[in-house]
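pipeline/complex-builder :: batch 7 item 3
reading input block
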Amino acid sequence: MIDWQPLILTFRLALITTIILVILGIPLSYWLAFSRSRAKPIVETLVSMPLVLPPTVLGFYLLLAFSPNHIFGNWINDWFGLRLIFSFEGLVIASVLYSLPFMVQPIQSGLAGLPKQYREASYILGKSSFTTLHKVLLPNIKPSLLTGIVLSFAHTVGEFGVVLMIGGNIPGKTKVASIAIYDEVEALQYDTANVYSLILLGITFIILLIVYLINGGYFKKNRA
Amino acid sequence: MIQISLHKKLQAANGKVSLQIDLDIKKGELITLYGESGVGKTSTLRMIAGLLEPDHGKVIVNNTTWLDTKNKINLKTQKRKIGFVFQEYALFPNMTVRKNLEYALQKNQDKNSIDELIEIVSLQELQHQKPIMLSGGQQQRVALARALVQKPEILLLDEPLAALDAKMRSKLQDYILKVHRQYELTTILVSHDTGEIIKLSDRVHLIKNGKIKTSGSPLDIFTSQHTSAKFTFVGEVISIQKEEVVYIVTVLIGTNVVKIIAQESEVEELEIGNKVMVASKAFNPMIQKII
């Protein structure tokens, strides 16, 4: 019988990360879609960096930042009593940064792709930008929202490099499934590695398939 | 009474335009801004609505200052009581017809006005449908009704009928006239369609190179010679046929097709698609009740 803990940890990490990303990602995407600020290209670049950067680079700098020997890590430690390095909380923060583009980019392009008259019509009807976002804009970009949520979730499930750098391999705290697979292979436990791998393969296949089915309209009645 | 004075430098398709529009509109009037594309008609409406900021200017609506750049007053779009109808309807696809109208309700506003508006634009049967199920004309009726929910002080119509076919246009024009009168609205229309302008508006302002070039009643602006006609209609030429010695010009007036005999000299200037005025003064038209 395999140890289920790494898998449970993986999905807990992905779920928490995704929830935080929804809360952070929507306002950030809104700002990126409609702002004319000069800082916008810089913020856009920063958000997209994890797409191209090796995860180890992000992991390396987070390792330095989170270290209690460092100003930031020390401050977090003093004020919140949080030791981010080699901890689940640290993994959550790293995952949020690492998966940020997967949440922000679909929502941003969804919002930017809506006719600008939707916003204007809503303002003319006396509605605030918050009401407009919540009642008009977001309901009309449901496929983008779904894509953002699922990609962030799936991407966090697939995380390896960042976790290895700052999480280490502590069972029940930072030993997620991807690390466990690596671990088992190193210990020449190919069967266990295979079980973990198959489970991840199956679950991610199903999640992505559901997204494409929903966004392709395959679940709608009377599909034309 | 609405006083508007707006100035803005615009980057139009054919070079820079310095827009300078001064308008005084009486309560209850329906005026039209007319002119070629890119002269700043839509920009004028957007500045009145607060969607575009002028370089300097003033907008005073029934003694309330919406905009006064000298005194740094610039009410947000949300605070201006406007109805705005876009050419592309801009209905919210996630809401039914009725929900689109209800969305426009202000805090503590009575819901009964929605039923009345739905009835005026004859959409009772379609009120629970989503906009995508509706034809262009029906969607524009929803947009018109939605613009009236918050009882606007000015109704702005930005080429609202340009995307519709002739028959629908004529029907929608009747709806616009109906609501304009019933709700005693003050309305600014942007339109290219001379027939529509003559049918709907009290006054026309012809805009050229960013300025109002002439203003007057539609018939004064659009007909070169003054006729003392007994009746006049405006329509569109749909065909010109030569018959023996005369020409038969077929004109679409509203939804009716009328054939008119014309001399060669009259036909020379006409082309299919031209807007024409059909008038008669020699005969007394007959009038008969249709059962």
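note: The CA atoms of residues 54 and 161 of chain A lie 8 Å apart.
queue -> next item
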